[in-house]
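Input set for joint prediction.
Command: fold jointly, output tokens.
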Amino acid sequence: MAAAHADGAPLQPAEAKRLARRLARSERSTRLSALLLVAPLLLFLLMVFIGPLLMMLSRGVRDAEVAQALPATVLALRDWRHEEPVPDAAFRALADDLSKAHMPAAVAEAAARLNYALPGLRSMLMGARARMRNLPADPRAFFVGLSSRWDDKATWSAIRQASGPLTDFYLLSALDLKRSPAGSIEAVPAGESAFVPAILRTFGISFGVTALAILLGFPFAYLMATTGKRMASVMMLVLLLPFWTAVMVRVLAWSMLLGREGIVNDGLRSLGLLSQPLDLLYNRTAVLVSLVHIFIPYMVLPLYSVMKTIPASQMRAAASLGAPPAMAFRRIFLPQIVPGLAAGSLLVFIHSLGVFVVPAVLGGPREQGLPVLVVNYVTKAPNWGLAAALSMVLLVSVYLLYWLFVKLTKTVTPSVSAR
Amino acid sequence: MPAIAFGRACLAVLTVVSLLAASSARAADLAVSVFISPIGEVLKKGVLEPYQKQSGIDLRIDSRDWGLGSVRAKVEAGGADWDIVTNEETEVLQGCDEGVFAEIDRSRLPGLADFDKIGESYKCGVPFIFYSSVLAYDKKKLKELPSSWADLWDRAKWPGRRAMRKNPVQTLEVALMADGVARSDVYKMLATKAGVDRAFRKLDEIKSDIVWWVNAGQSRQLLASGEVVMGMGYDNGIAFFNKTQGTDFGMSRKDAILLTDFWSIVRDSRHVDNAYEFLNYAARPEIQAAVTNGLAISTPNRKAMAFVNPDWKPFLTPNPDALQDAIPLDAEFWVNNTDELTRRFDAWLAAR
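tokens >
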């Protein structure tokens, strides 16, 4: 592309350069003004969304409480190996830290952090501080006299492993793993792993919801795209009406419908079809039904929008060329709606991963997924490190899945990716 | 450290934005946050609104769900816009250690002179109610009445489903006592691995027949609708339900678990004087009695009994000095072990 004057004569190199510079300058000023226009939004997002999000997530790997409250102890334990006896210096340093703790709250936070790793350490630490009038002459005897667990290397290992500044403790916990006192990674005892099963449950439920949404949403969208205008708008209204109702209202409505004394059970009993009421509530079915009901518009709308663009003549052309309906559907129709199917599935899947209200209200113990746990660790048992680590696990697995999904849809439909 | 500075800036902006957004978060002379209903409603009508009328103070009333997290978040963000909150034992204990709540200066609370010594050991809380976790049943539906936690396990005599609290706190204690552990040994036992295993083994026996409840209202509904034959419940709720819904629920107080709720002052409160003035007001016998009358719940103020609705008296937890069949919740134990035992409880619940 050689630059040229309007009359066709080629530009002098110097002139071309000047022109390019002026063009660049004018473009830069447009870009700058565009940036200025979006700057408030960017700043807003950074301050109230991205910043706090990163800050919260960073709690999952940060470990500052112990180092802040017990600096001398952390220093004294730095070179200690688990095979060696606990040095007297460590006892002395801990006594020192506790006796001059000018920020009592910091010790309590450190104690709470240590208690996650070793239940009971909180009381040991707070108790030792409360009884520390002045520096004991024999720190080791003082601590061991309070609790024999101070003589246990596991106690000191827990302190050393929590000395920060970064930690894998919360992330390991989120995956039902922990570090042994010697430092190797091991699984938590059988029967105590709560998080990996919860992660699997969350994904299992989300897969189920997505599959059901495809099963129910596909024919609905197809009918809507192929039927007459009047019928299509009625169907759209039917689809969107519940969409405009608050989720909480719909969930409570389901619980009224499905209860042991609910409308479904009462109806079946009054018809004489049941003698004992069915347990329809607090199980997987109730959660799936409600989630599909809530999220199905996210599946139907993208499907409908791509189906609408496929002219009916294409299928007729395929038929006239000898393709039986099944083949025409598979070779002509399906490849063209893959983008809509992919978008719908992702929307439904990711939304289902994050729901908290539905399993909490309609599910039993076996339906409680990660979001319920995260909420619990943020608001009830305040263990924000673990909440952050669990959120990280959820976030990373969603991204992995998204990446896998994009890869898969690309290989399934080369025509789509080629476009 | 720039990252932390940036984080602080974010937090500051967030605080400002949320302050602007929440119209309720206006500056007031005193901001009190109480548990969500029904206790919150009773506190509003019986304590907070009368106090506002009497003192003419600009009082802001909020409500919160239980859990220390929400209060701690406010204190850490530096904008503690609550001055007083209601609390359970474990929250008071842990929040006190972590500096979420201020230590109570009891010399500024002459109103506590008539209080029983219940909940006295909590440095950051002023007790205002106490109640117990008991075995509840519907008298109309049972021929023979159960009388101990062991009966909750007796499926031969009382077939059917049982209601229990979906939380290791209280539930593990109940399981051990049902297994024959003496009241006084329960927490000693729970502090060992063998004791915890024993509690879970005991729960295993009736796991398939347990219907779990999360809030106390459900425990009553389950009894009323006949979904369960008996279950764990709170004494005051049962009495109140009998009165308002016309049911005939009974309860066994043997090995009941005693629970106390507190007022606490948030650490960075800017209205400490107002807070003490309010706490003195709330401790008055007639005000304490208003709470008791609203919920059929026991009051620590002995003098309040003169103002209490006589209908409630048989249901109130007796004076704690005479409370020989109950075991107070060991908050220290639960602050130490809630994390680990909740995890194990959840894993146990979800396992088949």
